[in-house]
Amino acid sequence: MNSRTMNQGGTAVPATQYASVRYLVDDVQAAIDFYTTHLGFTLHTNAAPAFADVVRGPLRLLLSGPASSGSRATPPDSATAGRNRVHLVVADLDAEITRLREAGLPFRSELVSGPGGQQILLADPAGNLIELFQPAARPGTQSP
Predict the structure, then answer these.
(1) pLDDT bucket at 17, cuts 50 / 70 / 90
(2) N or C: which end of the chain has fewer CB within 10 A?
(3) Domain parsing of the chain, residue ranges
(4) Strand partners, 13
(5) What does the angle CA 60 – CA 33 – CA 5 come to, to the nearest 5 degrees?
(6) CATH number of 17-68+81-135
């Protein structure tokens, strides 16, 4: 069976086009608003209050509310936001931090720098973590 989803234009898109991650959320509409307003995702499917999915490039984020089958299948001791996170690469981390702070979003960590680049964490309305990451410039390459 070839699994397909519908994009916003009503066109069938192979589900295998995306890498999907399921996040359990308390409020599907709040999660839709967070990801589409602040992080550049587009709404793919909206079956709120049970479920929605949003897309950014090849990432399909499944937002499962308490009434969704994905949430109901999760054992109670695993139903809270964890240490795993979606990793989003950005070209200008300082500008993203400024933009998101101006939107009133709280960060869950300080800016961390390492040999691979810089990162900072924020959380969606349900407490799921999102890592914003700017890779370090490599010798012989130009920064974006």
Answers:
(1) confident
(2) N
(3) 17-68+81-135
(4) 5
(5) 30
(6) 3.10.180.10
b/e 46-78 (16+ beta carbons within 10 angstroms → b): eebebbbbbbbeeebbbbbbeebeebeeeeeee
pLDDT value for 82: 64
3-state helix, strand, coil in the chain (%, to 5): 20, 35, 40
Task: Tell me the pLDDT of the chain averaged across its residues.
Answer: 84
Burial class (CB within 10 angstroms; exposed 0-12, middle 13-18, buried 19+) of 118: middle
Sign of the CA dihedral with 35 first, then 37, 43, and 47 last: positive
Q: What percent of the chain has pLDDT over 70?
A: 79
| 59 vs 77: which has the higher pLDDT | 59
16-30, 45-59, 66-80: segment of lowest average pLDDT: 66-80
Q: Is the peptide bond before 49 cis (omega within 30 degrees of 0)?
A: yes
Helix (H/G/I), strand (E/B), else coil: 112: strand
